[in-house]
Amino acid sequence: MNGDTYDIPARVREGSTSDIRSIDDWRRAYLDCQADPDGFWLDVTRDLVEWRAAPTVGLEGDYRHIKGGPFTWFGDGQLNVTETCLDQHLEERGDKTAILWEGDEPGDVRRLTYRDLHAEVCRAANALQAMGLHRGERVIIYMGMVPEAAVAMLACARLGAVHSVVFGGFSAEALRDRVRDCGAEFVITQDEGMRGGRTIPLKATTDEALEGEHGVKKVLVLKRTGGDVGWTEGRDVWWHEAVEGASPDCPAEVVAADHPLFILYTSGSTGRPKGLVHTCGGYLTYTAYTHRTVFDLREDDVYACVADVGWITGHSYIVYGPLANGATTFMFESTPTYPDAGRYWDMVQRHGFTIFYTAPTAIRALAAQGDDFVTKYDRSSLRVLGTVGEPINPDAWIWYHQVVGEGRCTIVDTWWQTETGGIAISPIAPATAPKPGSATRPMPGIEPVLMDPKTDRPIRGPGQGLLCIAQPWPGQARTVFGDHDRYVATYFSNFEGLYFTGDGCRRDSDGYYWITGRVDDVINVSGHRMGTAEFEAALLHDEAVGEAAVVGFPHDLKGQGVWAYVVLQAGERWSDDLEQRLHKVVRSVIGAHARVDVLQPVPGLPKTRSGKVMRRILRKVAEGHADQLGDTSTLADPAVVDAIVEGAKGRHG
Ligand code: WTA
Predict the structure, then answer these.
(1) Cβ-contact 443, 426 below 8 angstroms
(2) d(CA 246, CA 133)
(3) The overall pTM is greater than 0.85
(4) Number of structural domains in the chain
(5) Which of 361, 399, 511, 540 measures 20 to 30 Å from 211, CA to CA?
(6) Range of 301's domain?
(7) 525 by DSSP, 3-state: which?
């Protein structure tokens, strides 16, 4: 980037902070931030965040010294994030809808104003405090998409406690792992969830997760469906009994900027999911800034992100970013196809959404159902359409733009990760000329570097390589809970002084970025991020399985599918029953959202003579490129490859 336009300081002042209205504004903000990141972010945070003690320092620490401990932002600042998300709005926006909720059944709607939400959060915080929750302690939230899930998150934040939301699709075993890993003493759940006309036994799964050893003292249970649930006296507490009678005033616990706000578990290449830690001041600053900038937020917007609060998108762009900005944020309990594929557009018509944010997988699934489900509803309120979670293929992009947005709306393809906290590479709605399939340009503060895997050198100009980021920004996760070494090893050991994202990426001659997908052993199925190692561990739970290797492969609707190669124990035989059993074990170890698409029995795995599984070969076969395996003569048993290729025939859908 050349600096020739950089002489007008585009500083953020009095609400003008994030006004990026043209590509020149973006360039100016980008260069401004590059030249003086501390000054840039201090201005942004003082503008967007309510501090008790405003910070005077920006970044302390860097990637090169990350082994010694996390870097920090706004080190001398003090705040409570709920004062930005709630209290500051009471005067001017007290009667504005903060949360607009639609339940599983169309038209089942609730609205909480900022005043309602503030009171409800205070009540829940008081109830949790009376149950013994203190600052710094961990709370697992295992709920569906009900307003109380957001209330629970904010109530923890009010007390300076640390929430860890576990997506409601996860199994008892996955929930137990997370409860133990973060040492949670409290769980907040509900009797049952509702989704697509079906109930989800959240309380029963919680009970199962809490069999055996754990440190959980109390379980707070919201009544959603009124279904029968088991009850452990002394441990379980009904939400309505504890919260409804509590006081609607609760003083906010003031914490340091880098106090943890939440832990969110995410899948990586190896081992169990990692609990990434996001902190109060930096995370809130970054999500508030990116939310208003990327989506071109306006005061009367009805903003709808249809993600789940169990994932980072729900944290950053349903709860924290929108509420910090005083927006009306939508929460959706159901699915895009319940009762039919017109559900989203029916809601656009009824609620008048102006900004709509979803995942490419939903766009592809809905496009496959035909345009009539879209065109029969009035979508004239829509202005900005966002996507996130996986690369969007140009066909889906064009359908979203032409059919859903009537060629009139701006599409923002937002690239980011649980680790980045907020949107990192994306168009800025009013400023960036889009290209279908490209996440376009970096946000201020994000310095992408493409590393050439062959030379370990940065690529200058156009080219394709491994996506890294050169400098810390305020929204970046600081560590892995309880295991800082793992954080360093995962993200900072590949390239000295760079954060490695795990994604491949191409930069074109206009300086636009095109994410090509994960280059590690993470698979992205329908926008759900999962580790191949987790699938392998799950399959090994079955006694019949001797070895398993799992890879992703391209899938028309889901983005990626899951292909499992299974070696049976001696004496075991493949059968339909066994196949069903293996599907079940994956579901029970990981969760309902985890499904193997292809289970292929194989006589052995391709290994080098030193015993390393050649995953590259397995990937090629699953991708249908058995003709591109390269040299396999160095394998311990080259004949295994022939059997794998033969066995894969006819399995490619
Ligand atoms: C992928 C979700 C292409 C990417 C917010 C990343 C994307 C992983 C995009 C993070 C996009 C996310 N284009 N790929 N716009 N957005 N990804 O942690 O592979 O669940 O590394 O965060 O999703 O998934 P996560």
Answers:
(1) yes
(2) 15
(3) yes
(4) 3
(5) 540
(6) 81-335
(7) strand
